[in-house]
Specification:
Blueprint (H helix, E strand, L loop, with lengths): L10 E3 L8 E12 L6 E11 L3 E3 L1 H9 L8 H16 L3 E11 L2 E10 L13
Antiparallel strand pairs: 1-4, 2-3, 3-5, 5-6
Length: 129
């Protein structure tokens, strides 16, 4: 196989750093292992962020997410780890990662974690008629 999981993330310059705009990504094929049973856990990761100077390159994000496939991790820990890596690498104005784990034993889990640059002030919301 020519492509392997990776622990690094690649970036590229934000093409419109003068403007706040939201980047949204859905990653419906996330998996890791339950640290108690070793069974696979599946989730859809929803990433949304307001970039500052950098954006994440999609293929590197895919390979990074793939690196969790054979790792045991609690849902809360893996969600915060991924958000931490992305926030450290990109230094976004705002970032939210929501992990929606599939049902296991009759329970679904949804974890949402946020990062916010303390200097960033979002524009007021606009309500359209």
């Amino acid at each position: 196989m020519s492509t392997q999981p990776a622990l690094s993330l690649e970036t590229f310059p934000n093409p419109a750093p003068e403007r706040d705009y939201t980047i949204r990504m859905s990653m419906p094929e996330f998996s890791c292992l339950c640290p108690r049973t070793g069974q696979p856990d599946f989730a859809t990761l929803e990433l949304e962020y307001v970039a500052d100077r950098l954006c994440v390159e999609l293929k590197s994000l895919k390979l990074y997410i793939w690196s969790f496939r054979d790792r045991g991790a609690f849902h809360e820990a893996v969600t915060n780890e991924i958000l931490g890596k992305l926030a450290t690498t990109l230094a976004p104005r705002f970032m939210r990662l929501t992990a929606r784990f599939n049902v296991r034993g009759g329970i679904t889990t949804s974890i949402s974690a946020e990062h916010r640059d303390p200097r960033w002030v979002p524009a007021p919301s606009v309500a359209l008629p």
